[in-house]
Predict the structure.
Amino acid sequence: MNYSLTQKQQKILDFIDEFNRRESMSPTIDEIAHCFRITSATVFAHLRALQRKGFIDRSSKARSLLLTRNQSPKHLSMNLSIPILGKISAGLPLFAEQNVEQTIQIDPAMLPWGTGGQRLYGLHVSGDSMINKGIHNGDLIIAKEQAAAEIGSIVIALVKDSDEATVKTFYLGDGKIELRPENEKYDSQYYNFDDVIIQGIVIALYRKYKN
């Protein structure tokens, strides 16, 4: 039996494992396709290959993917690999190669329940505009890719004609989007709906302490 995996097969296998552990069920074909931005037919092809190689078992039922863990203990990482993005521009896809500075490994237990299957990324914080939310200069925030936000969410937002993303609390008022800082030294900024692109919702904070 051929135990070697392509890079894409490895990523799909890790995604299935992470989704299973976080959601207590397997992802659907559509969820895998959405995560990797590939077609359902391509997902089926990868799953057939994984099944031939003995890494998964599956039936025709929904959410029936089963990892055969005894076949490949090496690939079942207990950590999530999260890309750290640098400058985000409106002209590039969020996860474009030009945006990715590095990747880090995060224990899923550090993240909120229910974020399994989400596209996650990290950003380094510059400035002190969010200190009242415990977010300080130099911190690394973890966000899930999401194009809409609930009132009061801490968002990663791109403002039209800006080359950098900003981290602020999201509110609505008087027909405009309010990006509110969490520091009394700064004022809220108000924008038309078409001038703001929500790139994600902050779900966690990762901070390294110096000895």
